[in-house]
Amino acid sequence: MAFTLEINGKMVELSVPSNVAVAQRVACHMQRRIKEDDWRPFKSKEEAVKAWAKLGGIRVQVLKALDLL
C-alpha cells in the first residue's frame, strides 16, 4: 500500500505511513530555506541542493516536488 502527500501541488508517493511525517518535516525545512534564502553552511542554493540530492530517498522526492531538482 502506498501513501501519498501533496507538496507544492505535486503528489509524493511514500512506502510507509511514518515517511509521511518525515516528508512533511523535510518539506517545511526546505520551504523555510527557500523563503529565507538561507543555504548555510553551503555557499549557494545550488551547492545545498546538490549535497541534499546525494542523500537520496525522501529528500530527493521533496526536492523534485519543490522544483529544486
Entry keywords:
69 residues, elongated, alpha+beta, two-stranded antiparallel sheet, 2 strands
| SSE ordering | EEHHH
Largest sheet: 2 strands, antiparallel
Spatial separation of the terminal alpha carbons: 26 Å
Major β-sheet strand ordering: 1-2
**What is the tally of beta strands?**
2
User: What radius of gyration results from the CA coordinates?
Assistant: 12 Å
Q: Please, how many helices?
A: 3
Low-pLDDT stretches: none
Structural domains: how many? 1
- Shape descriptor reads elongated
Helix content: 55-70%
Helix/sheet category: alpha+beta
Question: Strand percentage, roughly?
Answer: 5-15%
Mean pLDDT: 95
Topology:
Blueprint: E1 3-7, E2 10-14, H1 17-36, H2 45-55, H3 58-65
Antiparallel strand pairs: 1-2
Task: Please provide a brief summary of the model.
With 69 residues, the chain is of the alpha+beta class. It has helices spanning 17-36, 45-55, 58-65; strands at 3-7, 10-14. Strand 1 (3-7) and strand 2 form a beta hairpin.
Plain-language structure description:
The chain is α+β, with helices and mostly antiparallel strands and 69 residues long. The protein has one domain (3-65). Helix content is 57%, strand content 14%. The protein contains 3 helices and 2 strands, in the order E-E-H-H-H. The chain has helices at 17-36, 45-55, 58-65, and strands spanning 3-7, 10-14. A two-stranded antiparallel ribbon has the order 1-2. The longest helix has 20 residues, at 17-36. The N and C termini lie far apart (26 Å). The mean pLDDT is 95.
